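Session log. Operator J.P. requested a structure for one protein chain; no other inputs attached. Running the standard single-chain path with token output.
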Amino acid sequence: MALLLYATETEIRDELNSPDPKLLKEAARAYRARGDALRADGRLPAAQADASRADKLEAEARKPAKAAKRPPEPAEAPSTGQILLVNDWTGPVDVVVDGTNHTVAAGERKAITRPAGDFAYEVAVAQHQGKARVEAGKTFTIRIGPR
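Structure written below.
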């Protein structure tokens, strides 16, 4: 029973590509003990198989630890987007986005990171109000300038 547990545990650890050297040595001792009992009972092929398995486990325990072979974490989908305010006027302009005022100097580009979704904006100098949607991972540009 104990060997079955060791075998299962080492197989799981092998799948992760990071077997615990302490566990491998302990499992090797268990295989050697069972091999000794099998040899005493006259079952030499089984005893030799256990000795071979113990040798392999001990050799694996002496190897340096390997990096775990875990699947890469899925990249988290962005939940934010950007609103890019571009001022092509010769002076500063105020742009209100969802009630928050943003002053943008002449020639300036100002990025606002915000949750993806709908938003309202107003450009007072151009007497323009609008509604738009910014998508996750995308940029929505509001360009202010002469027509």
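Operator note: The longest strand covers residues 80-87.
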